[in-house]
Structures are given as structure tokens and as C-alpha cells.
Amino acid sequence: xxxxxxxxxxxxxxxxxxxxxxxxxxxxxKRDHGGxxxxxxxxxxxxxxxxxxxxxxxxxxxxxLRVESVVTIDGTVKARSAxxxxxxxxxxxxxxxxxxxxxxxxxxxxxxxxxxxxEYPEDIRLRYRFLDLRRETLHANxxxxxxIIRETRxxxxxxxxxxxxxxxxxxxxxxGARDFLVPSRIHPGKFFALPQAPQQYKQLLMVAGFDxxxxxxPCFRDEDPRADRLPGEFYQLDLEMSFxxxxxxxxxxxxxxxxxxxxxxxxxxxxxxxxxxxxPYATAMLDYGTDKPDLRNPLIIRDVTDEFTSSGFGLxxxxxxxxxxVRLIPAPGTAGLSRKFFDDMNEWARSEGHxxxxxxxxxxxxxxxxxxxxxxxxxxxxxxxxxxxxxxDGAFFAAGKEEQAAKLAGAARTRVGExxxxxxxxxxxxxxxxxxxxxxxxxxEKKLDFAHNPFSMPQGGLExxxxxxxxxxxxxxxxxxxxGFELASGSIRNQHxxxxxxxxxxxGLSKADVEERFGGMYRAFQYGAPPxxxxxxxxxxxxxxxxxxxNLREITLFPMNQRAEDLLxxxxxxxELKQLRELHIRVVEPPxx
Length: 593
What we know:
It contains 18 helices and 24 strands. By secondary structure, it is of the alpha+beta class. α4 packs antiparallel against α6, α4 crosses α17 (539-547) and α13 (461-467) runs parallel beside α14.
């Protein structure tokens, strides 16, 4: 027999009753029933109930062990009595009577529990991540993550894509975040950068004559953490295609993305391939208040600015007169709710940093609230009728500068949908957001900047750059959104050197700057570059959605904390003076507060 196990802890069934077996694993739980000890023995594959009584030589050994100790059990498989069968466990029909026990590793007192799913402080969970990863939900999430990546690779290969690995040590690239820099020992004072994305390399692969590239690519960005973005590193399904239009990229990737989600959706509805809505950016901002709309929420925001150009409600009339906007968020079926619901929404808006959220109540056709009173009953009734709102529907109003009104309306739409239980919980709803602006104004730098990927193709090409107001130029740029999360971003690329220079000149970079910063691509485009495009989908966000997790740390093996620290390994750490000297670096401490 194998020195540690004849079976794993998830394998034994009624078919093995009577057999002598050997199992190894962790002591998950112990239950002492007065001379009879029950142990749940756990390994990667599952759980088996172990029984030891006074007739077993294993009893004193097992009684002395703490949970999470590692043991080998030799014993006999026995059928459980009818009343003790556990139908929720694959091994629930049997138990193993322990005849011998060998302690492989004793566990000290635990800093956190493994059995159960109770909440525990994040710093403890991350410092003792090896214990945290033993917990059932997190362990299952990591296994599912691996399965999702395997399925992704299979689907990409099945449609003719080939995986190529691109460099990790590279040059800095303008991907919209800070680079992680790596000092060069051989070239004093010079630095490599960890790739924010393989963007330039995958485009160069297309210029080099490859086609249908993909990669499960590690990417590195020195960003502040948040729930849907980890600090440091993340993984994406990176892909590029030659001789394609953006429509062909959508048609190629919809079956892949829908298929992956269908494989792991566990009964939830998935938007079918070929039916992903294509929503222009401007429409998304108007109807949903965001370029990441959650289509499980049926509420549509309405622009009602014109309604308040001349109104008895002076605040809105003043905002509109100053060039502002008024957006309406429906609140269907709220006649039975108290005014507290509406007041709480207003307080929520203030807690989010907004001036407030106006509202109108309506019950059996009768309006309530200061907006309706001052705007006028007839005008409000006509507005509700025009928008298809019923006699028992209320509404919220977001007013201010266009960007502020859109942001508040979008957040309020989500909040109302959640409060009224309107969001379908049993679905994954996909859509493409298309026709993004090519440029945007940077208030921080007081200049024009790229709105998204600077290597995208502007709609209208060189002529648009030369003759259009930059604010009106759109890009062949698109995002894939699911349930309110941006899952992927992509574009048709700009492969013309003169067009590339013209695009960067608009943001203040000269031809010499382009040649210096992006010399590899600029040179490559001089020697025959095919039309090409692609996208990158966030693996971590895909897994988070499919696992039903609320935070990326719940689907990642060894994440950092909110301060970008690895508490388990103690990173970042201070280097030795010898290392700094070899790298020709002196650390300059920030001034003390």
C-alpha cells in the first residue's frame, strides 16, 4: 500500500464498504461523544468521517491532536446507518473505523479558524493565507479559477488562436497608470518597467506576420487598490487579430465569453453569443449614467432638462439656466413605501459627496414633494405620462453640471434598483460599449489627453485629426461590460506612422517624442503593418463574477492588502545596502510630516 494513502478523502463510497484503506489529510473537526471520537478528515479532494472508539489503538493519538494537524489513518470502510447518512457529502454514505493513526505534523493553536466561513479580520487572513486557503469557499474559488483559465485557453485554441509569451522586463508604456520600475545593474541610472499590458508587443506580433495571438498575461500597475482591482499585478486574456474590423472581433469573442460563462454559470442565464447589445458611449452615459451599465437593472435614466427651463421649481431652473442638466431616475411601484425611503435616498446621496437627490412621490396619481408642488401638478403629470410612468411610481432627480448629474444619476439608478429588488440575481448580462471619445480634457494637467488607449484608430482617420474639434472625434474603441463591471477593453489599432504622430501631437508630443518613446512600433509601422485590433479581458474580474465573490482577494491566491503590502511574505521590504550599491541607487526618504 502507498505510504500515505490508498484513496483521497473525497473518493470513498458504499462500493468500498469492507475494504481496508489508508487516508491522509488534515483534522478538520473533532467531535467527542463520550468514548467515541468522530473526526472529519480533509484533503484537497474532499472530506471523510473517521471514527475511533475504545477498541481502536488510534483513539488516544487522535484525542491528543489539535485541529489542522496532519495524520495518516489506516482503517476499515463501514456503511453509515440510515439515520446518519449525509446526502450533502460525496462520502456521506460511509465512515472509516480508524485502526491505526500516524501523526505527520502537529498543528499549534490556530490564529484563525479553518472550519466554517465566519468573518475574520483581513490582516489575519492575509498574514496566515496558507490557513485561509484551506477554508472551503476560498479553496473552491481558487480551483474554479484554474478551471476557468483552462476553459479559456481551450476555447481560444479551438478557434485558431495561438498563445505566445511576451517579455516581462520591458520599457515604460502609457497605459494610464504608474509603472513598476526595475533598476538595471548593468546600465546605471536606467530602469526597465514591468508591463502594464503586452499592448506594444502584441501589435508588433501582428506586424511580424503572426495572426490570432492570445496570452493569459500577467500585468503590473502601481495603482491604488479597490474591490474590483488588486494592487500590483493582475491577469488578463490578451488577444490580437490581423485584417479584422471591430465587428469581426466582437463576433469572434462573443461565443468565447458567453461560452466560458455558460460553462460556470451554474444555471444562471447568460446573454447568448450574437445578442450582446452594442451601446454607444454617449447613450450609455445618458441612459445609465455610466459606461459600465448593469443591464440586469431595468431602470432607464431620462434627461428632463428641457422640462425645467421654465419651472416653478427655482433650484432646477437656475441649474438649467447655468448650463446644467436634470436627470430623472424612475422609482416604480413606490406608492406603498413611506417618505422615509425617499429621505434615506437623499441622505445616501449626500453621504456620497453630492448636494442631494430630489424626489417626487406619487400615489394613485396624486403627487407629493416640493418639486411636484412647485413645478405644478399638470406639468408633472404630463412628464410622467410622456415617460411611461404609472400612477403609483415615484421618481428621483439628479441635477448639476452634466458630468455630476450623470454620475449621481448612475449611482442612484443602481441604488434604487438594489433597494427595490429590481436587479435580476440569476443572470449575466453582457453588452459592448462602443464609439468612445478619442480625446478628453485633463483637469489635472490642463491639457488634452487620450481618453483610452493611445494606440487606437480614430474614426475618420487623419482627416478627422486635421479638421474636427478633438472633443468630437470618436475612436474605434470598445469595452465589454457584464453586470456593471468592465470585463474587457479593446480597439482597432492605428497602424499608420503619420497618423500615429498626428494623434500624439494633439496631446503635446512631437514626432521626436513618438520616435523616442515608441520607437519599436514607430519603426515597425514603416515596413508594412496590417490592419489589426484586439482586446484584453480581465481574468480576475471574470472569476470574481463566476464565483459570486464581492472582492478580488476572494479569488486570488496570495493578494496584497489595501496598503499594497504582502503580509505573508513581508513585501515590500528594505533592501540591503550592498544591493543598492550594486544597482547604483540611493534611497531618498520622503520628508517627515
